Amino acid sequence: MESIELLLGGFANALTPINLLWVVVGAVLGTAVGVLPGLGSAMAVALLLPVTFSLDPVGAFIMFAGVYYGGLFGDSTTGILLNTPGNSSAIATTIEGHRMAKAGRAPQALATSAIGAFIGGIIATTLVVFFAPRLADLASLFGPAEYFALAMFAFVATATVVADSVVKGLAALAIGLALAMIGIDGPSGASRFTLGLPQLFDGVAIVVITVGLLALGEVLHVASRIHRDPDPVQSTFTGRPWLKKSDVRKAWPAWLRGAGFGVPFGVIPVGGSEIPTFLAYGTERRLDARRKNPMFGKGAIQGVAAPEAAGNATAGSAMGALLALGLPTSATAAIMLAAFQQYGMQPGPLLFDRNADLVWTLLASLFVGMIVLLILNLPFAPLWAKLLLIPKHYLYAGISVFCGLGVYATSSSIADLILLLIIGLVGFMMRRHGLPVAPVLIAVILGPLAETELRRALAVSEGDVGILFDSPIAVALYSLLAIAVVFMVVNKIRKHLREKA
């Protein structure tokens, strides 16, 4: 009952005219960026992070609620219409969604996607409302050793899951940790990796890293291949998105099953929603194979419904893990954590006590944002499709300008623009060699936390490393990590042997 009362207070703050305006603006901007191929929801949050600095914290995070889910819907829109998913989390939706579009059922595919995203997000956010405070109470049992174990779990789990190669994942993790260590070391006051430059004494701003890696790195990658990768043939889009009763009967069990896959994965640091979306897609495909008239491969509506619900359910429960534990379980959540830190707030168990008004207003705005997105995206999906008609050279040139302006506006520093270009080149080289970006962002965000908690634990134990393994919670986290790594390695070996055979 207490959670319901607090949530109602959050709705009272979120439903003021100015805050409703910020939700709508965030939903529109998030969808507009997410719908562009190669950008996606993480980049939508990264690009729009500088825009919110002029707002008060409540207005900024309400706007982020719209951006957060708007980018996810945009990811699927471009995949369904052009077979070019805006993000890897939309790949599973794209498989059957684009087949529906080629069969003249693009409106139905987009409607299925929008409603599935709404259902998955609503279920996950409702669970967050009731269970995030309990998670926060659990997190109060964490000390330095437990937080270090949690950070190590996030590092290794993300690095081994999101990359084709464990080596590439660990290399990306090392890049992130190197960036996180630049600046003045707090306890000793010594400068680290600054090359003697005063501009680096404060470290590299998280905005510079996120915009450089995600946005500018993608721009440079696209520019390098613009003559090799021709623009895809534009799909026709006619009619209004709507579903028949027969479509709803096929889709609603898939929506619920997809949400069931997505919710638990939101609190596991596996780098995003790729795993639950493919699990949901694979389950629907196996169920469809038992039917008299299998539809997978021809444009099965279940193949759109389940992955889309799974993706947004993962995003919703990831917000709960971020707020209650301070643990970002995906690249988008890592950027959201950076946004909290920009306003001097640290997500975790104390956030619900120190900033309760902001937390419950944010949770209420997630509900409002999903309703706004459903209203916007069902009738206006053809409008988002027209953004795909912008020529690549104009589109990515505009993104480059926006990157520079956004970073310069936050610091008025030429040094940050130079760092933006350098990190953009790093992002380009990572894409060229197949290194994932998510471990870099997780390492940049959680690296300082891991270092601080490790030093605190060793200071308390007077240098005895055994303190890191004395706690049952820490031992449980390390055990889960070992099991997860063994499971992933065995699966990758099996996959390699099957491909070789």
UniProtKB/TrEMBL annotation:
InterPro entries: DUF112_TM. Keywords: Membrane, Transmembrane, Transmembrane helix. The keyword ATP-binding does not apply. The chain crosses the membrane at residues 20-39, 46-69, 109-132, 144-163, 169-188, 200-223, 318-340, 360-381, 393-426, 433-451, 471-490. Residues 20-441 form the DUF112 domain. It holds the Pfam family TctA. PANTHER family: TRICARBOXYLIC TRANSPORT PROTEIN. This is DUF112 domain-containing protein. It comes from Actinoalloteichus hymeniacidonis.
